[in-house]
Amino acid sequence: MDATALTEREKVLVASREKDKGNEAFKANDYEEAVLYYTRSLSVLPTVAGYNNRAQSEIKLQHWHNALNDCQKVLEMEPDNMKALLRRATVLEQQGNYQNAAEDLRNVLQTEPQNITATV
User: Fold this and answer.
1) Where are the alpha helices (DSSP H) in 28-77?
2) How far lies 19's CA from each of 1, 47, 49, 86, 103, in Å?
């Protein structure tokens, strides 16, 4: 999607609409469709939520490399993003990188000691 001619307000509206479509596809368990919509949203306006949502869809599809890339993008934008750390830990575990997965979980627990997901 070519967003160069759009105003900032239009970019926000288009990106939000595409992200919402991605959310609907995700809720319907259509993860490939969700990835498509999140990608469209991100092409207009890269956001933490867009990358996080696409990462979760990629995890559901077991596209570990793509999910890892999206988690990395989130963490570049927001280094302490708990969702991205948890998702990256999931990906790293699936890739057999247990040491780095455990490190991400420790980082989550330092910030959120009661985080049940990180303790399981």
Assistant:
1) 31-44, 48-60, 64-77
2) 14, 10, 9, 21, 30
CB-based burial of residue 112 (10 Å sphere; 0-12 exposed, 13-18 middle, 19+ buried)? middle
Measure CA of the first residue to CA of the last residue in the chain; give whole Å: 40
- Domain assignment of residue 118, yes or no: no
What confidence tier does 117 reach under pLDDT thresholds 50, 70, 90? confident
Count of domains forming the chain? 1
pTM for this one? Answer: 0.91
For residue 1, name the pLDDT band (cuts at 50, 70, 90).
Answer: low
CA 33 – CA 27 distance, rounded (Å)? 11
The verdict on residue 78 lying in a domain is yes
Residue 2 lies in a domain: no
Q: What is the CATH number of the domain that holds 34?
A: 1.25.40.10
Packing angle between helix 64-77 and helix 82-94, nearest 10 degrees? 150
Task: For 47-73, write each residue's pLDDT tens digit.
Answer: 999 999 999 999 999 999 999 999 999
